[in-house]
Amino acid sequence: MIGYVTLGTNDIQRAAKFYDSLLSEIGAKRFMETEEFIAWSVSPELPALAIAKPFDGNKATIGNGVMVALEVKSSEKVNSVYNKAMELGATDEGAVGTRSALPGFYAGYFRDLDGNKLNVFCMLQQNA
Questions:
Q1: DSSP labels, 19-56
Q2: Quick one: how far is CA 108 from the chain centroid?
Q3: CATH numbers and ranges of domains, the chain
Q4: What span, in angstroms and rounded, lies between the C-alpha atoms of 12 and 51?
Q5: What positions does the domain VOC occupy (predicted)?
Q6: What's 74's DSSP letter?
Q7: How far apart are CA 54 and CA 93, in angstroms?
Q8: Which of 85, 104, 95 has its CA nearest to residue 26?
Q9: pLDDT tens digits for 12-69?
């Protein structure tokens, strides 16, 4: 069970503003915060997403192959979160739509202001 995922940032205030606005699209709010770390969640019982300045004091860098996936309940919500990310200055990594790898998988991919890769997705209802 994942408790939380942390993404590195070199500008905590800029990243906080981005994630405050982006994650409000799915009802997440800050629940833990220090000068070096902020975490958001929709519920204390569910996994969280956090940003942090690296503990070792070195520059935050992007993890090649690392991605955080945010699950939502509908394609409309996928669209709204993806569009919000673009509005906030994120970089497109794959526009919203269905993906052939998994039937019913609807997703959009983007990179945040620090270059961290995220995905927002839902599973569409399949006709039996």
A1: HHHHHHTTT-EEEEE-SSEEEEES-TTS-EEEEE--TT
A2: 11
A3: 4-54+66-123 (3.10.180.10)
A4: 7
A5: 1-123
A6: -
A7: 25
A8: 85
A9: 999 999 999 999 999 999 999 999 999 999 998 999 999 999 989 999 998 888 999 9
